[in-house]
Amino acid sequence: MSLGLILIASSGLFSIGLLAALSRRHAIFMLIGIELMLAAANLNFVAFWRFGPPSPNPHGALFAIFSIAIAAAEAAVGLALVIAVYRHYRTTSVDRMTQLKG
Amino acid sequence: MNPWLLAQFLWIIPAIPLAASLVVLSLKSSRRKTAAAIAIGGQVAALILSIAVFVSTLGAREYRAFFNFTWFTAGYDHIQFGWLLDPLTAVMLVMVTLVSLCIFVFSVGYMADDEKFTRFFAYLSFFTAAMLGVVVANSLLLLFVCWELVGLASYLLIGFWIEKPSAAAAAKKAFITTRIGDLGFFLATTLAALLIFCGAMGKSGQFPLHVWLPDAMEGPTPVSALIHAATMVAAGVFLVARTYPLFAFGSVHGVTPSLTVVVWIGVITALMASLVAVAQVDIKRILAYSTVSQLGLMMVSLGVGGVAAGIVHLLAHAFFKALLFLGSGSVIHGCHGEQDIRKMGGLRTIMPVTFFTYAIGMMALSGVPLFFCGAWSKEAVLDATHHWPVSNLPWVLMIMGVLLTAFYMTRQMIYVFFGQPRSASAGAHESPSVMLIPLIVLAGCTVIFSVVLSPAWPWLESYLTGDHATLRWGDLLTSTVFVSLILVGAGIAAAAVIYRRFGGAIDPLQRAAPIVFRFLEERMWIDELYERTVVRFAKILAGLSDWLDRNVWDGFVRLFAAAGQLTGILTRGFDERGINAGVDEATTGARGLGWSVGRLHSGKVQGYLGVVAIGALALLLLLAWLA
User: Is residue A57 assigned to a domain?
Assistant: First the structure.
């Protein structure tokens, strides 16, 4: 177990999340991609905390916990937005949602 | 009054008829009375001023007052215009205005039926203005300007009845023939005197430029009276008198080459015209040739040195010739437009006033002494001719001229006024008083003039030459008086005898010598000669000029036009294909560019996110590369 390995894993996870956000048409799938990217960032934090200088402070883990909480809140907001937009556009395909005015 | 003071305001006298002419021109042709009133009023004003000028200069001795002003300066040259007041000017002013006034009044009746009545008076006023301008001009340049205006007025008036082709042709003939003379006038700087005389020849109808004058009779009779008897044709004689120092330069006993030329041309003219007049049958043409003959006589007088005599004869001639023309106009009017004397006769009882005044004019012209002014002036002319050192021939030929004058005038009188009434006289009537009064006035002037001009008291001659005048009764009966009495008597008697039993059929002269009569009747075929030579030559030249103008000069013009067109075509091509296409390409490119860039704003979130990702990646690589 080394830092490099975990970083590779987290960058891989980030790329997958980015790919999902960029290439899926369904709005909720875009949200999933964004969650994945957040998870990758969290993993980075924990990895650098675990393999960094020994310290009694759990700053890495703490940051990850805050990040998860915020991610949850943001996911809720995101879902609410998707539902509101769906009510207007009657579709979840982000290809169709091109006009702000509608 | 000081002549110098008067000279300043001399321009007013020609200006008044000119103003009248302009006003009349602007009137409608229905306002005849107004037009006639304005024209006649202008003449009356000019006459009063002329008489005032003349009277006020009687006291002064040997004056020659002038008033010059600088018209414009070109470098050191000052071009001056001005008016001249000397005895010659004063008498000419009175003569021109007085005779013109009578003719204006006469025209009221004569032209009453003409629809262009107002325009006639405008032209008449313009003519008098120009003639007075000739009289008062101080410089040859101003004189020449007014000279040309007189020629223009003559052209307009001769061709007044423009619907008659003969009138239009005669007007052209007059203008062009006098123009030939005017060309000479203008070249006066080189052959000064002779070429001035050339102009005088054209204007005064001397041989060989006399041909326009008889044809000018096509114009209305008042025009003939004014222009071609009294005033305009006198301008040539006036010009020679005015420039006399130029002619007499370097004279030996009063003889110079220029003056000799003047004398011989005058002699030929006088004799030739009198001969032709014997065989004419148009009442006005007889008078026209008589005018040509008398003008020749005046030129002879000036040439031999009798300048005062010649001018006195000019003044007298103006009055009685105008009287004769107006009288003939009255006859024509009374005979309803007939001008052939063979169709008239016996008008003595039908038109008594006309007959009486015409008789006075005829006796003045023939030279019946004592009561008729033409006699005295003719005496003086013959006297001067007699004393010419070069030759006696002019004197002899002028005596023959006097004889012929008496002869043809008596012939005309018998044809028109005596004998049985023929076709035109049948329905004839006397003219209205508006036409008769000027006749009476002129007849009166003729008689009064004879008193003024009698050699017993050479008042007018002294006035013109500046000498003293003494009353000498003895001069009334000199040898020349007797000689001329005999001549005039012989002429009148000969005509009376030849025509005493004239019935109006064939002229006795024609029966006696038909070939000679034909030669004279056809005016010695001079017009035909000119037609074949000069006119034909002019036509050839005109044709050549026309060809040149049409093909060569027009060719150049067309060339320039084509060049301009070519430039236009090239510019248009460049504009359409070059500039327009360029602009089109630019706009298409701009639109394409705009569309390409616009695609970035698709509204799709995933697109924006993609760009952000790529940008972040680029930054990352940049950081890695820099570190």
Answer: yes
Of A15-29, A35-49, B437-451, B563-577, the range with the lowest mean pLDDT is B437-451
Per-residue model confidence as pLDDT tens digits over B6-17? 777 888 899 999
Establish if A91 belongs to a structural domain.
yes
Two structure tokens written together for B349: 């009882």
How open is the CA angle B13-B16-B21, to the nearest 5 degrees?
Answer: 135
Chain A neighbors of B606, CB-CB under 8 A: 21-23, 30, 94
Interfacial residues of B (vs A; Cβ cutoff 8 Å):
602-606, 609-610, 613
B588 Cα to chain A: minimum distance (Å): 27
- Cβ <8 Å between B606 and A21: yes
Range list of H helices, B369-432: 373-386, 393-417
Quote the tokens at residue A52: 């960094």
> At B372, which helix (H) or strand (E)?
none
Please tell me the total count of domains within chain A.
1
Q: Scanning every residue of chain A, which has its alpha carbon at the shortest distance from the alpha carbon of B603?
A: A98
Asked if residue A102 is part of any domain, the answer here is no
Residue B239's nearest CA partner among B305, B323, B140 is B140
Chain-chain contact of A98 with B613 (C-beta, under 8 angstroms): no
User: Quick check: B259 and B266 in contact, CB under 8 A?
Assistant: no
Instruction: Compute the distance between CA of residue B534 and CA of residue B55 in angstroms, rounded to an integer.
Output: 49
Write out pLDDT tens, residues B260-291: 888 999 999 999 999 999 988 889 999 999 99
| pTM of the predicted protein model | 0.61
Tell me how long chain A is.
102
The reported pLDDT for the residue numbered B123 is 93
Residues of B in contact with A100 (CB under 8 A): 603
Q: Which domain holds residue A46?
A: 3-96
B603 vs A22, A30, A99: nearest CB:
A99
CATH number, domain of A65, equals 1.10.287.3510
Question: Are the C-beta atoms of residues B293 and B186 closer than 8 Å to each other?
Answer: no
Which residues face B79 on adjacent strands?
B72
Inform me whether the C-beta atom of residue A1 falls under 8 Å from chain B C-beta atoms. no
CA distance B607 to B615: 12
Residue A26, classed as helix, strand or coil, is strand
Mark yes or no for CB contact B609/A95 under 8 Å: no
Closest CA to B417 of B505, B511, B499: B499
**What letter represents residue B598's amino acid?**
G
Nearest beta carbon to residue B609 from set A21, A95, A99 = A21
Say which residues have a Cβ less than 8 Å from residue B456's Cβ, sequence separation at least 6.
B471, B472, B473, B474, B475, B476
Domain annotation covers residue A55:
yes
Task: For residue A14, give both structure tokens.
Answer: 């980030």
The whole-angstrom separation of Cα B53 and Cα B150 is: 23
- For residues B230 and B8, what is the distance between their CA atoms, to the nearest angstrom? 27
